[in-house]
Amino acid sequence: MNAGKMEEMLSNLVTIVGGMNETLQGVQGEVQGLKGEVQGLKGEVQGVQGEVQGLKGEVQGLKGEVQGVQGEVQGLKGEVQGLKAEVKGVQEEVQGLKGEVQSIKEEIQVVKTEQLSMSKKLQIIVEDQAAVRENQTIMDGKLTKVINKLTDIQADQDLIWKKSVQNERDLGKLKMHLQL
Predict the structure, then answer these.
(1) Looking at residue 47, what DSSP letter applies?
(2) For all residues of the chain together, what is the average pLDDT?
(3) Per-residue b/e over 144-159, b at no fewer than 16 CB within 10 Å?
(4) How far apart are CA 164 and CA 27, in angstroms?
(5) Where is the Centromere protein Cenp-F leucine-rich repeat-containing domain (predicted)?
(6) What is the pLDDT of residues 164-179, one digit of tens each?
(7) Pairwise CA distance, residues 78 & 75, whole Å
(8) CATH code at 98?
(9) Containing domain of residue 88, as a range?
(10) Residue 158: which residues within 8 A CB-CB, separation 6 or more?
């Protein structure tokens, strides 16, 4: 093999290695982009978790209100029992109380409806959170593939550099031999 051909091969190898370096940098940029997407998804998951906690707090508040209303109903029933001796003067008041009890029952029904609606919303949020987790798992898998590919590219680059150095040495030896 003549020296010109060796130099041409060496030049081709250097060009290939340069191209691989550019490819490696592009892949590293993609990895950084994927990492950013993963961080964004993690932020979304935390936001959804915060919303879930807020909804749980609202549900607890509604449960407290229902218990308070139930306590009021029990108090009203006690008053009705105590007022039975004064039926004549209290009949209008009893009618008023019956209206309030009905109103409270309607409010309880509204609260129950709202609670059911909150439960449905909570279920939707839980499903959304599961979808976000699934997306995060997919992104993690993609990131692992990219990292594996980068590792392979790095190993290939190291091998090419090793071969290039060996070819340089061989070329130097050949030049020295040809000069003798």
Answers:
(1) H
(2) 86
(3) eebeeebeebeeebee
(4) 23
(5) 20-146
(6) 999 999 999 988 888 8
(7) 5
(8) 1.10.287
(9) 3-179
(10) none
Long-range contacts of 148-153 (CB under 8 A, 24+ apart): 149/27, 150/24, 150/27, 150/28, 150/31, 153/20, 153/23, 153/24, 153/27
CA–CA gap between residue 27 and residue 33 (Å, rounded): 10
Work out how many domains the chain is built from and give that number. 1
The 3-class secondary structure across 13-38, one letter per residue, is HHHHHHHHHHHHHHHHHHHHHHHHHH
118, two tokens: 């909150």
What does pTM read for this prediction?
0.32
pLDDT 10s digits, 9-58: 888 877 887 788 888 888 888 889 888 888 988 898 899 889 889 988 98
Instruction: Specify the pLDDT at position 75.
Output: 85
CB-based contacts of 20: which residues, under 8 Å, 6+ apart? 153, 156, 157, 160
Q: Which residue has the tokens 């150095």?
A: 165
* Distance between CA atoms of residues 154 and 32, nearest Å: 17
